[in-house]
Amino acid sequence: MFIFNIKMNRNILFKLIIGILIILSLIVLCASIYKIFINTNSTITVNDSIKIPEIANITPQNYTNILNLVYNNLDTYIGQKISFCGYVYRVYDLENNQFVLARDMVVNSNTQTLVVGFLCKCDKANEFENGTWVEISGKITKGDYHGEIPLIDIDSIKPVNKPDDVFVYPPDSSYIPTSFLF
Q1: Is residue 34 located within the same domain as residue 124?
Q2: Rounded Cα gap, residues 99 and 95, in angstroms
Q3: Torsion over CA of 77, 163, 91 and 83, rounded to 10 degrees?
């Protein structure tokens, strides 16, 4: 039977613990550097389960949210096919093959409204009078109307009856009116 009696002073014990911690920290640092900079064989794959529909259907409930998103992030949505219903709205300086597919957005409790919508381009645009309700399908492209804006290049258009839910409402908590209607 052996008995060991080890006597250490506190300074040596403290230096020993600090030394071990520094060595462990260096090992972790070296392993991290190796993983980040040297070992590039591993890749991270993200499996998104949310599928983007081939044709996005715009409804009165999501109309202004989508309108806001597309106007603010046009490059993200170029090429996206969409389908929605609205009425033909023209202003004097649109081209003959253009109109705004519009909805009336309620801006206050007195049911004051503001016309909102997408600029559309269609060879058959002249066949539809102002105020005609139509359903369209088309692709989002870049257009120019007093600056760069979304333009829907219409693939199909057909007249429809005026829907029961003709009004749309401001986007979720992000809409700030810039003017007041009298």
Answers
A1: no
A2: 8
A3: 20
Furthest CA-CA distance within the chain? 109
37 DSSP assignment: I
What is the spatial distance between Cα 166 and Cα 95, in angstroms, rounded to a whole number? Answer: 26
* Tens-digit pLDDT profile for residues 132-175: 999 999 999 999 888 899 999 999 999 999 998 888 888 876 54
Q: Which of 1-5, 10-14, 52-56, 96-100 has the highest mean pLDDT?
A: 96-100
E-assigned strands of 12-123? 55-57, 81-89, 98-106, 113-121
User: Residue 53: what pLDDT?
Assistant: 66
Domain co-membership, 80 together with 162: yes
Domain interval for residue 14: 7-45
In a domain, 69, yes or no: yes
CATH number at residue 111: 2.40.50.140
Sorted by sequence, the CB contacts under 8 Å of residue 132 that are 6+ apart come out as: 87, 88, 159
Q: Which residues pair with 149 in a beta bridge?
A: 143
pLDDT, tens digit (0-9, with 9 covering 90-100), for 77-91 = 899 999 999 999 998
pLDDT at 181 (0 to 100): 38
Q: Confirm whether 28 is domain-assigned.
A: yes
Among residues 127, 108, 124, which one has the least CA distance to residue 167? 108
Examine the domain organization and report whether 38 and 85 are in the same domain: no
